[in-house]
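Schema walkthrough. Field components (list of strings):
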Amino acid sequence: MIDVSNLVYEYPTVRALKGVSLQVAPQTITALVGPNGAGKTTLLRCLAGLEQPYSGRVTINGLDTRQSPRAIHALLGYLPDFYGLYDALTVRQILTYAARSRGVAAAQVSETVDKASWRVLLKDRLDARAGELSRGLRQRLAIAQSIVHEPKVLLLDEPAAGLDPQARRDLSTLLVTLRDSGMTLVVSSHILAELEDYCSEMIIIEDGLIVGGQAIKVRDVERPRYMLEIATARSDLREFLSGKGGVNVIEADQHHALFTYTRNAVARFRLIRDLLGAGFELSSFGESSKALEDAYFSRIRQGHESRT
Amino acid sequence: MNPELERNVWLELTPRRLLVMTMVLALAFFAAAVTAGTGGPAETARWAYYIIVVIWGSRNAARSVVGEIRDHTWDTQRLSSLPAGTMMWGKLFGATSYNWFGGVLCLAVILASLIGHSGVLVAIIELVYYLSIGMIAQSVALLASLMAAGRRQGHSQFEVFLYQGAGMVAAIAVYAIWSVADPAGSILLHHAPTDFIVWWGRSLDARGFLLISLALFAAWTLTACYREMRIELQMRNGPLVWLAFLLFIGVYVAGFDAWLSGYPYLTDLDAVARRLLLAGSALAALSYVMVFLEPKNRVQYRWLAGRFGAFELGTGLSRLQSWMMSYLAAVALGVVLVAWLGLNRQLGGQGAVGAMLGFFTRDMAIVVLAGTLSRRRTGDFAAAAILFMLYVLLPAIIGGLNYGAGTLLFFPRISDPVWLSPTVAWAEAAVAWAMTISSIALPERQPAAT
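Field assembly_structure (string):
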């Protein structure tokens, strides 16, 4: 759905993106993560066709941002880090304007506004002014504004910043619903915990480059990530696991191992049995609850090692 | 209805605000009617129109884009599917809809008075004038704010004031020009109106000429707004419209050559030379204005140089900035003028024009260099300070020290030998451009991005 090839973006005194290449598959939620100043917002703005790159190519659904920026605008929704709402207007007026300015036919505007407000659970607040809404509700309204025209791609820049835990949970549910309805989402954040619940792919950007050169799969329903711990150190832990069919070790030391393996319960039972049979004092074994965080730091370490 | 206009109307034309405007103006007109020495309701309506439509309207027009940037709604608007024309008209008349509501009330009083005292024709002419001055002021303010948006700067209150100021300067220019032939009499400049204007050797009816001129300049201003809006909406503008504008300005200004015939230093010039001088000067002035206003981005210049380096001439030429096209056109006219003066054996004039072209070329380099070295507007201030130093301070010091001949280092003169002044000017231009090109080609630093 999104294809970026050797993208270079320069500010007058800074090269913010230094040859970024990546692909985003349709109907996925991809996390764009990295430290502050890594180039996340610049990359999102290039994807949205709001900035023209110095060189390289961005295509969305086969359309080039340089050649057809307006056609791409029609395909995507963009939620900037500031929500961009008109505080003096009501929710209905904001969504009506968004629908009309995004090309929704006049006869369908009312229905479209109802649908968008229903999706973000704001149907009962259509006559409230945006300035009177809480931060969580404003964020929902901003998302409704971004999806009112049913875009194929939704780009969200730090969507959960400043939200309380309940609002973050609501956001996760909403984003998964949007993905299931057919949208492709790219979510930028520097807080990994907030992405954990809904992202299936992750792109790490650091100093204007994609770490590892490509997106990594962080949530695989068939092959989740597992973390195990053993009580007594064993230097052959990695070697033992690597020798087992179907195990893909991401990283391991003498006490811990992070790996992907089938979700099948019988297969898991056999692996645990083999570990115990080989004398490993297994003290914990379970699906990694911090898949994204594990993958992030693993990839960052690999990136640094390959550079040194 | 235009969605952008409708959104602005939701914000601007609330029943309470409409009532307040109507009440305030009604009270002002009534007070003028019952108070001696105020000039009556019509005079009050004129002043109210200038305040509401020109001064306040310019501010609202300037804020129509700047306010969106400040409130972080501009990116969402840039992503909309609205055509540039729809967005421009929606902003221009939407953000100022409340001002136009007040303006219409004022115009009703002005026209009622004019029809009663001067007849329908004068009333119609005045109506065109008032609509033009309001629209030109507001569209220039919008244009200034759009250009600032293109430079990714300018949403403080002070900067909004600057864009509003640009609109008001345009309005004052319209007012001053109109007062030349104002049939109703100017309310600020009290002088006798002129019935005829000489243009391209023909004596034309002043009111008709000025009305057409106003309409043409209003159309060009709106065209400029439209093109700037296209850029903001990520569309590309070709060079043809700007080239057409340069042609229009050159022809329009050259027509006033009769005004130069009495100027002491120019008595030797024939009509052709005067017209070339006027047209070239107008294009040079546009170059100075545009080189200050347009973004001076090293990345863009490197990209442009890359296109020419790769012999992608069509792409390169189509992406030239307006100041570059104006500069090339002005230099081309200057070269024609030099050749014409040579044919007429006016060697002194030839040298002076050659030096003018050299200093003009140097100045462009100075503004670009300062703009690419500094961030945002500070570069333009630095360039203006350098030019002030070169054209005013240093010549004054050298003149004060009785080294009068040294001033040819700073501005064009008829020198002895004739070739000395242009040689000095072009040498300075070469040095300035060498520094500018080196600066643009410098590699960037590597601090954090956003």
